[in-house]
Design goal:
The chain has helices spanning 40-49, 51-67, 121-155, 191-203, 212-221, 225-240; strands spanning 2-5, 8-15, 22-25, 30-35, 81-84, 87-96, 102-106, 110-116, 161-165, 172-174, 179-183. It is α/β, with parallel strands linked by helices and 243 residues long. It has a 4-stranded mixed β-sheet with strand order 1-2-4-3. A 4-stranded mixed β-sheet has the order 5-6-8-7. Helix 3 packs across helix 4 and helix 4 packs across helix 5. Mean pLDDT is 91; it is low at 1-6.
């Protein structure tokens, strides 16, 4: 549900666990979390009183993003370095007879782009970027399925479905019906990061919380998971800026 109060836009989420109305500000959204029985009028009034705080939080987020180093290049041209699995791989662009932009990873060390000859030079960077994102999403699905096939059978942690999404504040989630969402931006990080997030969400199939039993189950699959968790905390802001 989208609600507007001069001039802020926010999403409203009702929660049976919420005792008080609260506001969560992230890079890409403002979310109001409210108890089930609180009226919309009271929620709107609460947001109105918090506008100065919300605007300050948005500014802090924007300043943080601006100060965070980007992993991706400013333009997708010959020789640009593309982040992939924790490395920076060079981009090689070749004009070809293909009708669409095609991406190939050669020997795990070079991104080769086949660019249609009729694409204007000023359009090529944007089209290459879009093609790389599509390629990364497909790779994320493939790598995630391999990890699930490896880890799920051990304790029968089988998800109902896997979806690859673009998210600005979460690496993954496991829904009430065991549908797992994964952020494709993990493909920019070292491989262990995707493995950690896949295991994290698989373990939520058994434990819908972050209890000690949950973390013990994570450790059964990945004994040094704390290193991956710390790496994401330290470098996650750069990953979240995407390609």
């Amino acid at each position: 549900m989208n609600t507007q109060t001069s001039p802020l836009l926010y999403s409203l989420r009702r929660s049976s666990r919420a005792k008080n109305t609260r506001i969560v500000v992230t890079v890409d959204k403002i979310e109001v979390v409210a108890p089930l029985k609180v009226s919309e009028h009271r929620i709107q009034a609460f947001v109105q009183t918090q506008q100065d705080w919300i605007k300050a939080a948005l500014k802090r987020m924007a300043d943080k993003v601006q100060a965070t180093p980007r992993l991706a290049p400013s333009e997708y041209i010959n020789g640009a370095r593309i982040p992939y699995l924790g490395r920076q791989l060079p981009l090689q662009i070749n004009v070809s007879k293909t009708k669409t932009v095609r991406i190939e990873l050669q020997d795990g060390a070079l991104f080769c782009v086949r660019l249609p000859a009729d694409i204007a030079e000023e359009q090529s960077s944007v089209l290459i970027q879009a093609a790389l994102i599509r390629w990364m999403k497909a790779q994320a699905k493939h790598h995630a399925q391999q990890l699930i096939d490896r880890h799920a059978p051990r304790f029968a942690l089988f998800p109902r479905s896997i979806r690859i999404k673009t998210q600005k504040s979460r690496w993954g989630s496991c829904g009430p019906n065991n549908d797992i969402n994964l952020n494709w931006l993990l493909m920019l990080a070292p491989p262990t990061m995707l493995e950690y997030v896949v295991i994290h969400e698989l373990c939520h199939i058994k434990h819908k919380n972050h209890s000690q039993a949950f973390w013990q189950l994570v450790a059964e699959h990945l004994p040094d998971y704390r290193q991956s968790r710390l790496w994401l905390k330290q470098h996650g802001a750069s990953l979240m800026q995407g390609l």
